[in-house]
Amino acid sequence: MTDIPMDTMVRAAAHPRRDIGLKARYAAERRFRIYGAVAISVGLAFLAIMLITIVSKGYTAFWQTTVSLPISFDEKVIDPSNKRAADPSVLIKANYPKLAENALVAKLGINPDDKPAIRQLKGFLSEGARVQLRDIVAADPSVIGTTRDVNILTAANLDSAFKGQIDLSVEEARRKVSDQQIAWMNKLKADGVMAEHFNTGLFSYGASSRPETSGMGVAIIGSFYMMVIVLLLALPIGVAASIYLEEFAKKNRLTDLIEVNINNLAAVPSIVFGLLGLSVFINFLGMPRSAAFVGGLVLTLMTLPTIIIATRAALAAVPPSIRSAALGLGASKMQMVFQHILPLAAPGILTGTIIGLARALGETAPLLLIGMVAFVADYPKTPFDPATALPVQIYMWANEAERAFVERMSGAIIILLVFLMAMNITAIVLRRRFERRW
Amino acid sequence: MNIMTEQSLENAVGDKMNAKSNEVIKMRGDKVGVFYGEKQALFDVNLDVRLNQVTALIGPSGCGKSTFLRCLNRMNDTIDSARVTGKITLDEEDIYDKNIDVVELRARVGMVFQKPNPFPKSIYENVAYGPRIHGLAKRKADMDQIVESSLKKAAIWNEVKDRLQEPGTGLSGGQQQRLCIARAIAVSPEVILMDEPCSALDPIATARVEELIDELRQNYTIVIVTHSMQQAARVSQRTAMFHLGYLVEEGATDKMFTTPDDKRTQDYITGRFG
Q1: Using CA atoms, how far apart are residues B112 and B114, in angstroms rounded to an integer?
Q2: How many domains, in total, are found in chain A?
């Protein structure tokens, strides 16, 4: 044992070492590593910039400024002629903003006859106060004549000012909030009446022209409907198609052609699927516009190739030895596929499906073409009612100029990203948990 | 069934009496040729597989022995481009006949593969799968009985009886291969085909499987492909030598390893090529 190294040493001494270009090889490897590190750093930097921009602009969207006011539900304002017993529509049409205004006037101690001050005061609270107060009265008419503390939404501009997003050094005429309003704001803030609360409206409100009462409620429901439709249609069709192509179909010209076409379909720009949906589902089949159902169909078409490719890869990854084992025992091909191959391929299929769904969730272009870019204020009750989708909502808010809409857009992006991340993490966890090494 | 009992009786009587049993042909290949696409892999093979004997197929890599083996239970059907010519019979019945159902054929002619390939399921499920799909057990107790007797016949029962619900893939290589043999036995086949069953096993596991093959011969007819001359000599009664797609020589193992007729057989056995 010991004389072997001796022997090599002697030989090493006897033969001068040849130059086999080691230095150059190691230098090339070092250079390549540096290129790689630089590439990754650049990628990470862009990602960081994007996330920081979105989060810094958007996190405030999750907070909404309100003023807590003791609203006196004055019968003289709501129902001056006392007709509500005979005509309930009086309660719907009543001048609710006046209630909020009166409460604020009292709170700030303004002279009710000071017309210019009152005019400025009208821009202080949100028009949404009307709906807020009306809902309270509609739910419980006995509230009339009593006084109750209500958190009234402030107008979007005051909300922005409160969050410090409006530059107060600009001269008064050129900014959206007046000095008087700022003074009131500071007073209410000092009293602890005006404060920020978690913005539940962002998740529940539908479309609105006022930022403070607009939210993603309709978009979330629309996206949810579409995901369900995509899952229900694309998964069974995709898996069935893959099983047929991978396990049953003869390998010939036709199947080759189909395979090439499926791969091509996966690369077709999504807007083309939108055009297809418009001409086939809406124009030819007469399905409703703006409906989540049609959106779901279009996204199904778009997701199918992804699912088929992932499923075929998962099926092909099941080792032939398992197939031989099942067939050798006398299992029919169908038994082999459904009792052995499919269970083993399931994690891969699931991963592919989730990634396909995540892609569909973030898809905008085809939905624009089928009319899902619509002003929808009411929740869609069925998938056939008009709805929007999360990315489309982002697109619509991006077209607005107000600071409060920019903030909501970034907030919506954060929510969409959280959904996508959750889906992708689920896919990764599933793959890790069930992955088999052969 | 009559033949089988007669057979075992004769086996018990002694080797000299075996002359008669040699004449019972379980499977017969008649001018078998196999094409993969345009390429012919097997030429005019005439080979008989005798009842309750181990027939070893030997020959250098790519000589067609595995191809021939896979014809015997029509596993070549799973390859799109494969085409089989000639005639193969099982109990005088043409297995490539239209009336023969391939699923039924494979239940009668079982197979054990080169690499142990248990299903990634429990040990119990591995053995129970075959009987279940063929409806061999009506009740749970019957199934338990089949599983136990199969594992016992495969000489692995004592090692796994306490962990039947553990995955079959967690066993050692040798145990996995015996589990695969148990799985093949569980459907009560008449013939068991073995494609280099020991090539992935260590010498100790190999010895156990070889022992097992010798025991199984009492009840089953076995065809085994092997690369090991010693193995062929140890376990088989008859040996067939393949070369370049042709059957070179076939005969009693004793004779093949002592006085082969063909020079190629002699060269291969003595290690001059292969």
Answers
A1: 7
A2: 2
Both A401 and A266 in a single domain? yes
Q: Give the nearest chain B residue to A252 (CA atoms).
A: B80
Print the domain residue range for A70: 63-198
CA distance A427 to A348: 9
A269 in the same domain as A140:
no
- Give one word for A330, left, alpha or beta, with left for phi > 0 and alpha for psi -120 to 50: left
Domain with A232 in it: what CATH number?
1.10.3720.10
Of B103, B117, B129, the CB nearest to A321: B117
Residue B48 main-chain phi, psi, to 5 deg: -105, 140
Instruction: Pick the residue of B79, B103, B146, B169 with the most A CBs within 10 A to test the interface with A by mutation.
Output: B103
A32, part of any domain: no
Averaged pLDDT score across all residues of chain A? 87
- The residue in chain A having the minimum alpha-carbon distance to the alpha carbon of residue B70 is A328
Token pair of A426 as six digits: 């689920």
Chain B: closest CA distance from residue A253 (Å): 14
Residue A213 has pLDDT above 80, yes or no: yes
Q: Clarify whether residues A293 and A395 are in a common domain.
A: yes
Q: Which of A347, A336, A394 is nearest to A367 (CA)?
A: A394
Nearest CA in chain B to A319: B117
Taking 50 as the threshold, does the pLDDT of residue B13 lie above it? no
Q: Tens of pLDDT along B18-65?
A: 444 456 888 999 899 999 988 998 999 999 999 999 999 998 888 888
Residues A399, A317, single domain; the answer is: yes
Contacts of A251 in chain B (CB under 8 A): 80
Measure the CA–CA gap between A243 and A314, rounded to whole angstroms: 10
On whether both A260 and A384 belong to a single domain, the answer is yes
Are A70 and A138 within one domain?
yes
CB-based contact B184 A436, cutoff 8 Å: no
Cβ–Cβ of A328/B133 closer than 8 Å? no
What was the ipTM of the complex prediction? 0.82
**CA A224/CA A365 separation, integer angstroms:** 18
> In the prediction, which pLDDT does A230 show?
94
Q: Is A253 on the interface with B (CB under 8 A)?
A: no
Q: Is pLDDT above 80 for B4?
A: no
What domains does chain B contain, in order, with CATH numbers? 22-269 (3.40.50.300)
Residue A86 pLDDT class (50, 70, 90 cuts): confident
